[in-house]
Design a protein that fits this description.
Strand content: 5-15%
Order of helices and strands: HEEEEEEEHHEHEHEHHHEHEHHHH
CATH class of the largest domain: Alpha Beta
Largest sheet: 7 strands, mixed
Number of domains: 2
Shape: globular
Number of strands: 12
Radius of gyration: 21 Å
Number of helices: 13
Bound molecules: iron/sulfur cluster
Oligomer: single chain
Distance between the termini: 23 Å
CATH architecture of the largest domain: Alpha-Beta Barrel
CATH topology of the largest domain: TIM Barrel
Structural class: alpha/beta
Length: 419
Amino acid sequence: MSATVQALKNQLLNDIELKSEIGVEGINLEPEIFKTLALGTEYQEQVHTLFEFDHEAHEDIPLPCGFTNPNDVHFGFKWDRRSYFDIIREDGSYLLRKKGKELFPIAFNKRPKYFELKGSDGTPFKTVGNYAPGELAGSTLNVAYSNECALKETGLDCLFCNANATAARYAHKEGVTWKNPRLIGEALKAAWELDGVRHFTLTGGFIPERREVDYYLDVAEAIVDIAGLEDFNGTAVIGAPLDLEIIDKYAESAFRTLSINLEVWNPHYFEIINPGKSSQLGGRGNWIKALEYAAKKFGWGKVRTSFVTGIEPKNFTIEGVEYLASIGVISLTGGWNVGIGSALEGHRTPEPAWHWDMYNKAHDILKKYGFKHQDYFDVSPGANTLVGDLFAVEEELFPIQKELTQNELTAKDSSRKSA
Ligand code: SF4
């Protein structure tokens, strides 16, 4: 590897570490700076289809979803007025600063074209799912069939989760509601054709397993019929079924991958953090059995779980990532973003260095078991996950890396010819 290629890798890793730090700290800005930004027409506005990620509520303040830096690294945007990062507008450009020192100019995410459109029942597509743009393997559409979790009825919501609080705060205002399979098929068709979506996730709250499987299979059928996509690279996110053979039905459907989210690994944490998952659907033992069963049915790299990292000590999560990778299951290890409206509101996630170390350790484990960027992308709800970025740097997938390698090859070729 040439010195320039290595220098670029190091630069990208610095950007990704910064992204990890911003994920913890959020970003401050004065909403007035958007007076001149066409949010909601030219640039993508936030729509709360399941969670609120900002560190404060903003019912009447439209905010952007994210931005890229000059190296094409995507950053998510979470508003936090206490943050030492801020975005300012200067001479017509937007600049990211850390403690008042300019880092780089940024470009907010462009609004996807399908956001302009509506389903045949008149529902605006922008309320159907969470869209994340991506150039490395494609963009992603993450649909929550219901923006409310049925655990609300029992008071057993996962302690970190703010889905029900987010629905109560924004759903009426933003028009987010339950989605029928046809609407999802129509929205995915438009996003696939117009905005380069190449991975689809279907998720939602807790519903009884029989109803869940019927609904998911209806969505898969609607996508095949309406979008004409036999393989839409879809991940079905489900609760662990008591009858494990229900997983066979998902494996026979058009979903390519399956997700059963543990959130934390240690049994004691599992019981406390996930009271609903723990007291219903067979408890932790059944959730792990379901992952093991699914790994055999779907195959290597076709099943994933999600951990909310930073709630339990790091070694517990690492133990889970390692065990699951050894049976072919990919763990997503997104950092705990303390959700406003969740039972843990007011707590703090670990420091940025803790999260950066966790991301790298998770990446090292997955790499050791042979997983690649494409495997990770195929099970991720977002196109620009942090561990996905680490895979991409390693595999030289960033556009700027490809360009540099190409330039170096061309230079070598022309010097050979002139010699
Ligand atoms: S199961 Fe837990 S994480 Fe999922 S929506 Fe319900 S409360 Fe939230």
